[in-house]
Structures are given as C-alpha cells and as structure tokens.
Amino acid sequence: MQMNRKIFIAGILLAGIGMCCGFRQTDVRDVNKPTVPPGKHPNILILLTDDQRFSAIGALGLERVLTPNMDRLMKMGVTFTQNHIMGGLQGAICSPSRAMLMTSKTLFHQHLDGQYIPASDIIMPEYFWNQGYTPFETGKWHNGPAAFNRGFGEGENIFFGGMHPPETGGHWKPFLHHYDSSGAYKGGFQGDHFSSIYYADAAIRFLDEQKGASNPFFAYVAFTAPHDPRHAPKEFRDQYDSTQIQLPPNYKPDHPFDNGELNIRDEELLPHPRTKEAVQGQIAAYYAMVSEVDHEIGRVLDELEKNGEAGNTMIVFASDNGLAVGQHGLLGKQNLYDHSIRVPLVIAGPGIPAGIQDSGYCYLFDLFPTLCELAGYGIPPGLEGKSIAKRVYGKPSKPRDHLFFAYSNLQRGIKKDGYKLIRYNVNGDTRVQLFNLKEDPYELTDLSGEAKYAYKVKELTKLLVRDMKDYHDFCDLGKPGWGHPEKLTDEERSKINP
Prior knowledge:
Layout lengths: L14 H6 L22 E7 L18 H9 L1 E3 L2 E2 L2 E2 L5 H10 L20 H7 L3 E8 L3 H7 L2 E7 L14 E2 L12 E2 L4 H15 L7 E6 L11 H4 L38 H31 L6 E7 L18 H4 L3 E4 L7 E3 L3 E2 L3 H8 L14 H4 L9 E6 L3 E6 L2 E6 L7 E5 L17 H17 L19 H5 L4
Helix pairs in contact: 6-8
C-alpha cells in the first residue's frame, strides 16, 4: 500500500493555494471540543453494512437475529436508536445515502442522486487526510472513482457498484479492484470466495500495518452484506430454520395501496401475494447474511484489539439504509416506513460511555461533523449535518427536533414528537398516513382519517411544506401532483441536480 498524495496540514497553506490543490482549509473557529486522549488524535474505524435495518441487531431484542459482535459494540459505546437516512430519488437508495454520509450534505444537494461527488464538496476521508490521517478503504464505493481517490490514499478489495449480481455469482464471485493511484480502475479481478471475507481480510492487513504508526488512521470498511443476493455460507444459513421464524407484527401479503414503487426490482424478489412461508424464507436468508457480516466485523474488532490500537480508536457501526423484508407487504427500501429509513448507529471509543442507548433524532449524515468534534477538530464550512458529539458524551443537546424524508416525487414524510406523517403522490392519488409511533411502533394504524387527529395532520403538513422549501425540494405540495404528477423518468431525475 502506498500514499500517493502529499499531506497538507490545515492552517499552514493559504486558503487560495488549498483550493487550487483541491483541498480546503479547515474551519478554525472555536468549537466545544470534547477531550481527546493525550498523544496523537484518535484513530477512526467505520464499519458500514448494506441494507441492514435498525432493528436487526440481537441486543436490541426486537428481532431474533444472532449478532454477537454488533451486540459487543453496543456494550462498548452509545447506540442511537433514532438514526435515519433522508431518502433518495430512485431505487438504489444506497447511492444518495452514502454520498450524504461522505459529504454531510442533504438529499437535494447531491448530484445525480449521489452517483458522483464533485471536487467542490469535501468528503469525510479527505478532511481527515488533510489533518494528517492515513485514509484507507475496502468494500463498497457507490459514488464514483474520482471521489474515491480524492478521499483515500490506500485501499484494497474495492467494489465500485451497487450490488454483486446473482447472474455473475453474487457475493461468492465479487468483482473487485486493487487500489489504483491513477484513479483509472481499469480491469479488476473476480473473487473466488465470499465478499465479506475479502473486506475483512483487507481491513485486518491494514490495521496490522498501522501498529505503532505515528499518524492516526481513518479506515472505512464498507461491507456489501446483507444486501441480496442472500446466499450466505452454510454455517450461517444453518443457524436459522425458516419454519421457526417469527413474522413481524406488520406482516402483510401485499401493501394496501400503490405507493408508486410496487414493481421495482426489490419488490419482484417474491411473487404477489407474499405468503407467510415465503416471507419466513426471506427473513431467514436475511438473518443469515446479517450473522455472516457480524462474524467478519468480529474479526476486524479482534485485530484492532490485537494490535493495541483499540484504546485510541473511535469505532462507528452503521448501515446505509434499512429494508422491509415482508413488513407492510413490501420487500425493499423504496418507502418511508421505519424499517427502511431507520438504520443502526453505534459510536464507541476512548472516553465514550459504554452500554448507552440514546433516542435523540439524528441522520446518518450527522456523522461527519460529529467525528470532527470527537477527534478534536473544528467542523469544516459547508457541512449540513449537525454534530451529536455532546450526546455521545451524555451532555444535554437536541440538534434536531424533527426529521424530513423523501423518496422520488412519490413520497414525503415528517417525524416529530413520536408522530410520523407520510404523504403520497401516485398517479393523481395524494393520500396521507399518520402514525403514533410511541403507541404503534410497527406503523399499523393510520390515524389520518380520525377527526381528533386532524390538527396533527395539519401541523405536520405545515412543517413538511416548510422543510421541503428549506431543503430545496423540487416538489411543491401546493401544486397539482406536487408539480410532478407522473413518476420521474431517469432523464427527468438526472436534471434535478446534475
């Protein structure tokens, strides 16, 4: 592995020179910096899974899934149980989600729905590289090779794309790349064993090389499990008997109405109606994939402890989006129910309280400014996320009192004070749903038609209209069909923020 780029320390170069070189001078304003350990700044290790909903962790007690290493991380740090993604403009939610994570910019400020990140947007590993960190990546990168090389000076077993196609072998035959300092990434190689093993192996080798290093590291390990195709190794499949799988309370054979995305690829993995037996089989296969990636996460954590860096490493565990897998009659993530927009977030490390669960509202893209503060740095200008560093340390803080969600021009949502409002725009049908999440966490009972909740629908709709304007939404609830009555075509979507 090699560093192919000179490290610029923030504050040494003039801002104009920094911008010419593609770097940004860090914001040196005074911030409420948490205490960092003496010596070098803490390492950062991000472990990201693919399509793992918030509840698919055994220690939460919400699903019967075996995740001893995710449970281990929960015991080590703070779990944010109300962490969310903002949404996306097309079926591959992972692309905008990962772009938002990297840039800490909101959905409608992503270009081509996150398919590429321009040089004008500083990304998280690039920022820490500028501070002297050694940046490394293995696994999935869904936001273009140019941005990848702007953020990482080292990498191995890199996957550029959305998923491992079943027709070419799926997770058992991943198409990967070695790090290419030129950024061309031509060729690549076909793997001959399970994807998660490749990523964990690369991470372990990197961590072993960092033992005793003078500079801290920023390691981003982006697994592609539990994303389908769900063909986990036999030892993990054998842990789950589909006939014994407990169906979720919100299981339905079909979604009760057209949400605008009932014919997308994710929803075609099972025929309609979804039988109980078929859904049990899907859940068993999903759990097997979660347990498989959990095992590889454990290998990475073991190496971190072995090389002596665990005591000075901020560890983040999260996922890019959730997944229905039979809930509400759906299989995919192209919806605004909690199973699809709520994702895990655990932060552990030096000085961070252990075994805490925090229910404050946050987004996945709040992680960038949070890590800046946790590592003892200022927050660079232009980020739209809000730091939850104070909450990590148990200090009073409420960065967000509500959350906004969007999917294509079809769905918009608001979550505030335990209520969620979802509005739909499908072929002229502009229906509404309202859920009391405190009493109805599985979103089973729509309260929007009850007279006593009319005030709540009005209140949340007003807030939704305000947020759509503030977030520069291209839709307008005040116009017929929100100004876009027909489902967006690929060409129309590409013009929203090219």
